[in-house]
Design goal:
alpha+beta; two-stranded antiparallel sheet; about 15% strand
Length: about 130
């Protein structure tokens, strides 16, 4: 809105396609799938091996030297107001004992989910 508050989000459906040259699987937008949804907050899980360039470019967040979204140590707020990061995009992945690398944040796996929740609530309740 005119005050900078999120009111809606545009989304698209994606499908996996194999690149004939590289054999790599890529996501491709399904034509005609765009929708607009009412929203006050958007949480995006787009990490696994660091952040995805198209996501960080879209949100204009600053990156660190390892392509993780840059934050202050122990914090989750990014360089963009009201945009937060966690999990693999954050570089401080909270995995349970015995989880494989890249497992990411999951319930009961550490303090990161609580820290993200507290950070978002502090901003949303301002």
């Amino acid at each position: 809105d005119k005050n900078g508050n999120l009111k809606a989000v545009k989304i698209v459906s994606l499908t996996w396609e194999k690149d004939a040259k590289t054999g790599r699987m890529n996501m491709k937008e399904i034509e005609g799938s765009e929708k607009t949804l009412d929203a006050e907050i958007v949480l995006i899980a787009a990490g696994f091996l660091g952040s995805q360039k198209y996501v960080t470019d879209a949100f204009k967040v600053e990156l660190d030297g390892r392509t993780n979204v840059k934050t202050e140590t122990g914090r989750f707020k990014t360089s963009v107001d009201r945009v937060f990061t966690a999990g693999d995009m954050h570089g401080a992945v909270a995995c349970g004992e015995g989880d494989p690398p890249g497992q990411g944040v999951r319930e009961g796996s550490g303090r990161e989910p609580d820290g993200v929740y507290e950070s978002v609530c502090a901003v949303m309740n301002d």
